[in-house]
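OP here, attaching both records as promised.
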Amino acid sequence: MAITLLAMSTTRLMILGLVRWLQPVHGYLVRRELESWNVEEWAAIAPGSIYHALRKLAQEGMLEEVGTEQVDARPARTSYLVTAAGEQEFQELLRRYWWDYKAPVDPFQVAFSLIWAMPENEAAAALRHRAARLRTIAGGFTAMLASEFMQATKPVHVGWMFELSVGRAELEADWCERTADRIEAGELRAEWGPAGLDERSEAMRVLRAQRERDGQSRPIEE
C-alpha cells in the first residue's frame, strides 16, 4: 500500500508540474514530454496513467479544464490549467520530495536476500547478467545525453537527471560484478541459510550478552 501511495504521489507531482510549466496544455503534449524524459524507467509513470491522472486531478479541483481542441478526425483534446488548490498541492509535494529521502524499493533486493536458495554458479551468472543490462541502460542514457535532440529540446536539468541515472546504473553494475567475484571465490557462507539457524541464534546470544556487559540497553532484533 505504501509503495502504491508513493507512486500515486509522484505521478501527481509530475503531472501538476508539467501542466504548471506548459499551461494551458492538453494531455497529449504532457504525455509526449514525459515520454521524452523516459519517466517510465526512473519514475514508474506509465504513459497510460497520464490521462487518468489529469482527469482525476481535474475532478479533485487541482486542475481546471479550459478548452477542448478538435483536430481533423483525432479525438478531442482537453486543455488544463493548475488551480490555486493544485498549486498548493504541487508546492507541498515538491518540497516533500526535495527534502526527504526514501530508499527505492527494488524486487531484486528481496530476491538477493534469499541467495542461499540458488546454486552459487547461477547466482553469479545472474549478477553478471544484471551488470550487463545496467551497463546497457547507462549507455543508452549516455547516448541520449550526447544527442542533438536532448541538447536542442530539453532543459539542462533533464540532462542532469540522466547523469544521475547513469551514475546509479554504473555503480550497481560494479557492485554486481564484485559480488559475483566473491561468490565465485567461495566467500558466500552457505551455513547462513536455513541450516544455520542454531548458529545464528548462538551468535545473537553472544552479541546480546556483550551489549549488556557494555551497558548498551538497545536490544538486538533477531
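Record two, same layout:
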Amino acid sequence: MGVIAVIKGNAKVDRRTKNLVKRLKAGDIAVIYHRDLDEVSAEALVKARVKAVINADRSISGRYPNEGPKILVENGIKLFDGVGEEVFCKIKDGDQLVIDEEEIICNDVPIGKGTILDMEKIENLMEESYKNLDRELDRFIENTLEYAKKEKEFFIKKVKFPKPVINLSKRHVLVVVRGKDFKEDLNALHAYIDEMRPVLIGVDGGGDALLENGYIPDIIVGDMDSVSDKCLKSCKQIIVHAYPDGRAPGLQRVRELGLEADVVPMPGTSEDIALLMAYEMGADLIVALGTHSNMIDFLEKGRKGMASTFLVRLKVGSKLVDAKGVNKLYRSGVKTSYILGIALSALLPITVIFLMSPPMQQFLNIIRLRLKLILGI
C-alpha cells in the first residue's frame, strides 16, 4: 500500500452526513457516523472538497453493495473506517486533527486508529456484499410485505391533503428529490421545464436543487431537516410531513422563521406524500426526479421495508414518469459530424438554385470564354 502522507485539518463532526455537508469547508476533515455510506452523501463530501473522511461506523457493512466509499477514493479522498463510538465522541467541531498512517491525533493527543479503505479493500468488501445481496433482498421483501399490510389503509382510501395554493389539476407536476444523479437529470430537464411550466415540488433538499438551477419551487414537502431557510422563505407553500400520530418536529423550525405551514400526518417518506398529493389533486402527469426507483435505492434508505413507496407507486403509476438517468440520453451531446451533415444538406439545394439562376449562368459563360481565350482553344 505504501506510505500514507500525514493529513492535517480542522474537524467537522455530525452523526448525520446530510447535515454535516452544509457546514463543511474545503480542507476540513469530515467525521461521520454513517453505516453503508451511500452515493449521494459521498458526492456531497467530494463537492465540499474535504481532505479526508473519518467514519465511526463501517462504510461497507456487507449488507449490500453501496458505492459511496468507492466515489470518495476515486476522487482522492482518504477514508478512515470503523474508528468506533469512543473516538467519535472525543472529536469536536474545530479540533485540530492529524492522521498519521492509521493513527488519529486530536489536539496533539492520540485518540485511536482507523482502517484505511483503499480501492483494493473496497473491491473485496463489495464482492462480499454482492454475495449477501440475495439474503438481504429476501429480508427486505418480507419486511415490505409486513409493513404494507399495516399501512395499506392510508393509501387505498383517498388521503386528505391541504388545498394547494397553486392549482395542480390537469397540470404537469415535477417532484424533485436529492437522489442519485439528481443534478445531472435536472440539468437535462431545463427545456422541458421552460416549455411545459410544470408545478415544481421540492422534497426537503430538492427545493434547494431547484433554486440552484434558477427555479423557485412552488411547494416544499418534507420533515424540514435538509432544506435551507432561503428555500422555505421563497416557496409559495410549505407542507410538513408528520408522523401518523400527528407529531411534526419540523413544524417548529418553520414557525421560528415566522412562516406558515400545513401538516400532513402519514407513514412512509416525504417523497411519497409529494407523489400522492399530485395524484389526488388531479395532476395530468407526474415527473419524479431523484426519487427511489431501484433495489439499491430502497436498501440505502435504511428503512425495514419501503412499503409506502411500493404502495404509492402502484396507485399513481398510470400518471408517473421517472426521470432518473434522463441525462444519460443526452450525455454524448451533438456531434460535429452531425452539424456538418445538416449544414451540407441545407446548402445543397441552395447551391443548385444559385448555379441555375440567369445571372450566375451569364457569369459562368464569361469565365468560360475568358478561359478559352487564355488557353487559345
